[in-house]
């Protein structure tokens, strides 16, 4: 059996761009089923402006309805500012706060309303909140694999910012994010090997948006480059509503699992409960997408 990997299931990312508001009770039902699967972490919601992401305005209500008594899965919530971080950190049930930190100035402003330097100050303050409240901070390096805005881009930029986040602020979990679906096996492999070699104390993962046809080869490239932390969303639903009009979907979790099963890689996921999650996801997203 190969080394076990962590799978982070992201219903928040799958739902956030859907214009029709999904009833809170249906979100709770879906996430409660996901909690039975044994995924390492569930990125279940976000504490952000309801004007920016209306779908996530009921995150606190969703949290109140979750059955956390018989699950090993942990909860992650996305935040974009100090108000969101304070709100999220007030809930004992939440284990991780996630912050999207783009190495594109343009996208950072689009996504969080502030540029890179100001966002670095935000991260420092959010880390202080995490340390005070017993949370762990997860940073998503957005635009890690390419930049659609004509700004300078190079893998070394991702390495440089990862080093700053780790050495200055103490961040030790970073997900390299392909926000617009431009990654390929070659740049995934080179990027992951570069950051892992330069910064071995950081737990690096990948959060890849992709078309379904090229998903498995991306999982394979990341795994062989040493990645043991994968974000996914069942059936590849979702994408980033702040990136561009036509969203590239998330990495389908079932494709990650297929690759792991084919290569005897342990995930800790209960197959029968995951199959039930697939069925609920199909009904839910077909109804509201």
Task: Sum up the structure in keywords.
eight-stranded parallel sheet; 289 residues; 8 strands; alpha/beta; 11 helices; single chain; TIM Barrel
Describe the structure.
- The protein is globular and about 40 Å long.
- The protein is an alpha/beta fold.
- It has an eight-stranded parallel β-sheet.
- Residues 241-246 have low confidence and may be disordered.
- It contains eleven helices and eight strands.
- The chain has a single domain (6-288), classed as TIM Barrel (Alpha-Beta Barrel), CATH 3.20.20.70.
- Helix 7 runs parallel beside helix 8.
- The protein has helices at residues 11-15, 24-35, 59-64, 82-89, 105-112, 116-133, 155-169, 185-198, 215-224, 253-262, 271-288; strands at residues 6-9, 41-47, 74-79, 96-102, 136-142, 173-178, 203-208, 229-232.
